[in-house]
Design the sequence.
């Protein structure tokens, strides 16, 4: 594991459902996952093509300095590449969408480190479909 990063491939096990559960607690999650998928031929959008590598580099740079109660992992796909890059707290936590800049990553990590999962989900929501 480099910088607390567990790189795995394949889809997340279990259901891929959003959550609006009030009272989210950072200690109830075991990982922050980032999709780094690049689709072959670039015919469809993917998290990798939408900035996941830059997000990954910034999370990996900041993670060792943080006191997070969970690990950081990269995964191949979480089913939302068309609106990525996709971050998600697992198990069954909220998707955190729209992080594109170093400032976005810093804000997300600040909120997660402070245990303010609900605020992170509000500031970086999954778009309504």
Sequence:
């Amino acid at each position: 594991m480099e910088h607390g990063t567990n790189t795995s491939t394949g889809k997340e096990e279990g259901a891929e459902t959003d959550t609006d559960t009030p009272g989210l607690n950072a200690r109830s999650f075991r990982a922050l996952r980032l999709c780094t998928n690049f689709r072959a031929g670039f015919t469809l959008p993917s998290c990798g093509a939408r900035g996941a590598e830059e997000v990954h580099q910034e999370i990996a740079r900041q993670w060792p300095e943080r006191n997070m109660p969970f690990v950081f992992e990269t995964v191949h796909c979480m089913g939302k590449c068309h609106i990525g890059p996709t971050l998600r707290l697992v198990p069954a936590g909220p998707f955190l969408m729209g992080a594109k800049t170093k400032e976005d990553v810093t804000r997300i990590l600040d909120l997660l480190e402070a245990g303010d999962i609900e605020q992170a989900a509000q500031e970086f929501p999954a778009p309504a479909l």
Summary: Residues 28 and 91 are 8 Å apart (CA to CA). The radius of gyration is 13 Å.
